[in-house]
Amino acid sequence: MTGFIKEFAKGIIISNPVFILALGLCPTLAMSDKLENALGMSAAVLFVLLCSNIVVSSIRKYVPAIMRIPVFIVVIATFVTIVNLVFQAYLPSLYESLGIYLPLVVVNCIILGRAEAFASKNPVTASIADALGIGIGFALAITIIALIREILGTGSLTLGDNTLFTLPVLGEHPITILSLSAGAFLVIGLLLAFFRRIGVAKNE
Amino acid sequence: MPEFLRKLSPLAFLTLVVLVAVTLLVVTESFTGPVVEKRLQQQIIDQMEGMFPNVSDWEFEDDLYTLYTNSEKIGYAFLATGAGYHGEISILVGLEDAETVKGVVILSQTETPGVGSRITEPDFLNQFIGVSIDDIALSQDGGLIDGLTGATISSRAVVDAVKQTAMDKVAQIEGTE
Q1: Is the pTM of this model over 0.90?
Q2: B96: domain range?
Q3: Can you tell me the ipTM of this complex?
Q4: Per the CB < 8 Å rule, is B14 touching A86?
Q5: Is residue A169 exposed (0-12), middle (13-18) or buried (19+ Cβ within 10 Å)?
Q6: Does B176 touch chain A (CB under 8 A)?
Q7: In this structure, are strands B101-108 and A156-159 parallel, antiparallel, or unpaired?
Q8: Interface test with A, best of B11, B24, B25 (most A CBs within 10 A)
């Protein structure tokens, strides 16, 4: 059980995929403009990562070495397509706003990376812990970025059709650049620097 | 195991994985497909009601909606598909009678944002209202529709699809009467 918690905690902080490993930055940059998009992306990545880790780990002893990567890609692509179909049917507005980034989860290096580096070498329980840790680590990272960008960039926070709150001064004069692409780079850069600073301090 | 069989076994494994994957996807699609279909249908009906505000009833036959207000025929509606710059453009066309356009709405498109995507704007679409089917063509081709600057392919795709499908449907309407 302690092993499970260790694998789980590892992904959230010390090897956070976005802030420490700097993986999966493409969806993080593109889909962190709004809290809603960030949550949708997180759910998709967490689901695909969990399912692919479970499957890859349970078939790891039977996969011929030469067919490893093709098999992993088929497994991941299947789950991504399932997420696509489900979002399209039941969450149409989220499906619209995630656009091309939802199918692109197939080539998200976090997922193939965990399949190849972890799930293909470890038992199922450890792989589940790893997927949950890395998945939640990714979700936390993209959500933090989205919160900063949406609150400062638009002056308010919305979820679905509801406006959760509007800030007094920023509501009228939002820092619009933060909700644009350039703002994504600025916010991620600053946060990466911040977490690198903490991480370095810990290593020493 | 003979040599050739051992060489084939990785391939057999991959084939097996793909078969399982396809089965899973087909099962998922059988659940989600009807939901998506139903919503598209609802979208068409909403747009149709926007185009013909006093429609009270309609018939759907051979991909053609015939619309009625208290059993009096007020028009027709049907879908047209244009070959756009990046992909299919799905269009809902409304006809007042067998000659005149009532309205044109873009249901879905994947044209270049800010360029071809302007085909969804009222400035472009409102040009179709009240135009005779014979006059549907870009103004440079002698018609009454002004194409969008820098988006001739997208504009022409819509114009051609509306005109072609409208002519087919008019033939269908006249054939049944």
Answers
A1: no
A2: 53-176
A3: 0.78
A4: no
A5: exposed
A6: no
A7: unpaired
A8: B25
